[in-house]
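Design a sequence for this backbone.
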């Protein structure tokens, strides 16, 4: 693996390892700092000894790698401690009656019940520039807040809630890696608009991104077209429907819905072709390269200057600059950009987009030249087609371990999708940007809108067709972080064997594959026998797991929730069934009564061990407690908050334990 010959690559891998492992260990910041200082002194001593003896010292390299690992650990711990201090400061100084000033920074997403914004907030005694998640309840007359506007409210601020059900997506950790520490739920009527101030530089770019998205919405009247093209051209995915995202994921081209390295690569190739005559000028090679870099950054800023876009632009800038000066290897340039981005923010290393983009570019830079060397054709057009096939296969298979780890699905027809759709993306991106420019200066001209409608129709039709093909996705079983590490190592060994035909890699590859199977077997979820009252908004749902089978008892026959799908994947469920929720049942000797207000209190079933209050049950709880003498009272997400508060007060008065799944998460019956 020749890329390991570069010192920056080796040091970068240890630095990245320190950051990643920092999230799994809770070392004190002072102890890590002293360890790094000691390693630095040892490194200086080893360097002096190396210069004095004029011999290579293995100790110098070992200490350098250890110091790089320690610096990564130190940087993560310092950033993580700063994030925790914001939450501690909030818990110490925040009072519910305080007026809070909110500045809208970005529209994040839209769900069935809320519109989510990233905001900056300030209240009495707070530290400066606290990032928070603002959840505005949707109504019929709901409007979208403009980026940069300031509002004032007394809505409650709290720390971001963790997962409520087993195997739920950890949204709190996801927001943490974006430095969002707090959460606010409010109704639009609770916010008072404040006089506007000047927009920041970043908010200017987001403002224009919203402006272009609104222009698309006014121009394209067919449902879904404006949202699709806003995501494709501008990286504006806030209003994109989940069904559309699912279709693109099944086709294996979900990456085109976010402005990424693919989009910047298309812009760079187009700009390089248009600006080709500059190469004939004196020093034209450098002028041409500088103009291509400028085009990348102009598009990155035009598309909203989001963190992911700026990250991809930085990575491409180093790759192009390294190629321009002719003294830098592509992978070396890639790791230089990795160093700089992680020094700016070590939380980047935990963002899925960051991991997938760097892994894809790494495998392309490493293996695509070897794939090109094995081309069966020499004609330029055939060679380009062969390279495009190789790029699609290498990028998809290189990122497959991470994709399977996070999403547990693999698109079967990814090569077909990439060969058909991605070339269309190039035309759609360039043509769409030109059409947007024409619409901005000539709104009455119909030709641009016809072109945009055609692009959206063609793209949506092809993706829908690919998604409807039989077995369009393969669902993979759950595996843990250790299995992922071994699979990534296997990918490197397989790539090394493919590229250099090294027979030495085969025995090691066989050993690693056997080790992967053993570790995956050890990481397999243990067989469980449990009954769980899950947290589901608006309904009561019980999950009864018996080995690899699951019985779901629910008050509603709606489709499977995201939580339930994840739970089945995590526990390797083979069979499942849906049943109506019983009003009374027994589990492990415990008598459980489900109360929705319709069950009479004088039914002869008494006493009971657990009382479950659901569906806003209008009951006299004190009377029910006297009749049934429960030992525990439960409630779930099917009831309003004011009902649950009243029940909690009654339970406290009667000196009974009270459990609310919306606050404490799913309840596991023991």
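Sequence:
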């Amino acid at each position: 693996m020749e890329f390991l010959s570069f010192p920056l690559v080796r040091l970068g891998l240890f630095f990245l390892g320190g950051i990643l492992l920092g999230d799994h260990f809770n070392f004190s910041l002072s102890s890590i700092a002293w360890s790094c200082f000691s390693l630095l002194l040892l490194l200086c001593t080893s360097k002096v000894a190396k210069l004095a003896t004029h011999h290579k010292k293995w100790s110098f390299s070992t200490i350098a790698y250890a110091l790089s690992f320690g610096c990564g650990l130190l940087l993560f711990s310092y950033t993580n401690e700063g994030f925790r201090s914001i939450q501690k400061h909030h818990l110490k100084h925040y009072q519910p009656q305080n007026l809070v000033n909110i500045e809208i920074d970005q529209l994040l997403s839209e769900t069935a019940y809320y519109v989510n914004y990233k905001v900056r907030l300030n209240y009495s005694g707070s530290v400066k520039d606290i990032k928070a998640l603002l959840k505005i309840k949707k109504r019929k007359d709901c409007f979208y807040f403009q980026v940069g506007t300031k509002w004032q409210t007394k809505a409650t601020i709290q720390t971001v809630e963790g997962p409520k059900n087993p195997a739920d997506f950890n949204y709190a950790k996801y927001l943490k890696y974006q430095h969002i520490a707090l959460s606010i739920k409010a109704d639009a009527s609770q916010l008072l608009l404040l006089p506007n101030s000047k927009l920041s530089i970043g908010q200017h770019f987001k403002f224009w991104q919203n402006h272009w998205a609104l222009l698309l919405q006014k121009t394209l009247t067919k449902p879904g077209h404006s949202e699709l093209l806003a995501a494709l051209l501008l990286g504006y995915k806030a209003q994109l429907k989940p069904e559309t995202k699912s279709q693109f994921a099944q086709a294996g081209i979900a990456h085109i819905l976010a402005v990424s390295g693919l989009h910047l690569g298309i812009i760079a190739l187009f700009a390089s072709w248009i600006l080709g005559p500059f190469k004939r000028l004196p020093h034209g090679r450098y002028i041409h390269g500088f103009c291509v870099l400028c085009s990348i950054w102009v598009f990155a800023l035009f598309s909203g200057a989001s963190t992911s876009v700026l990250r991809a632009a930085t990575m491409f800038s180093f790759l192009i600059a390294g190629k321009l000066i002719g003294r830098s290897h592509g992978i070396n340039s890639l790791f230089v950009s990795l160093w700089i981005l992680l020094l700016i923010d070590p939380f980047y290393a935990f963002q899925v987009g960051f991991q997938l983009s760097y892994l894809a570019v790494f495998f392309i830079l490493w293996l695509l030249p070897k794939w090109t060397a094995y081309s069966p054709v020499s004609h330029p057009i055939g060679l380009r087609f062969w390279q495009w096939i190789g790029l699609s296969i290498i990028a998809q298979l290189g990122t497959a371990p991470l994709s399977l780890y996070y999403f547990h699905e693999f698109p079967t027809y990814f090569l077909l999708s990439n060969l058909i759709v991605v070339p269309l993306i190039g035309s759609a991106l360039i043509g769409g940007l030109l059409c947007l420019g024409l619409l901005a200066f000539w709104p009455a001209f119909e030709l641009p809108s016809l072109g945009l409608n055609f692009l959206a129709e063609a793209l949506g039709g092809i993706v829908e067709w690919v998604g409807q093909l039989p077995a369009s996705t393969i669902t993979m079983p759950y595996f843990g972080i250790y299995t992922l590490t071994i699979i990534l190592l296997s990918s490197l060994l397989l790539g090394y064997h493919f590229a250099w035909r090294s027979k030495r890699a085969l025995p090691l590859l066989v050993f690693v594959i056997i080790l992967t199977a053993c570790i995956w077997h050890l990481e397999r979820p243990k067989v469980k026998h449990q009954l769980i009252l899950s947290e589901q908004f608006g309904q009561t749902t019980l999950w009864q797991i018996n080995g690899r089978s699951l019985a779901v008892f629910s008050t509603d026959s709606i489709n499977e929730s995201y939580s339930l799908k994840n739970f089945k994947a995590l526990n390797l469920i083979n069979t499942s069934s849906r049943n109506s929720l019983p009003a009374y049942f027994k589990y492990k000797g415990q008598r459980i009564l489900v109360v929705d207000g319709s069950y009479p209190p004088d039914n002869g079933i008494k006493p009971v061990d657990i009382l479950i209050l659901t569906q806003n049950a209008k009951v006299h709880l004190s009377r029910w407690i006297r009749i049934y003498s429960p030992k525990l009272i439960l409630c779930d997400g099917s009831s309003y908050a004011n009902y649950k508060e009243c029940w909690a007060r009654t339970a406290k008065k009667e000196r009974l334990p009270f459990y609310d799944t919306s606050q404490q998460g799913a309840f596991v019956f023991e």
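The radius of gyration is 29 Å.
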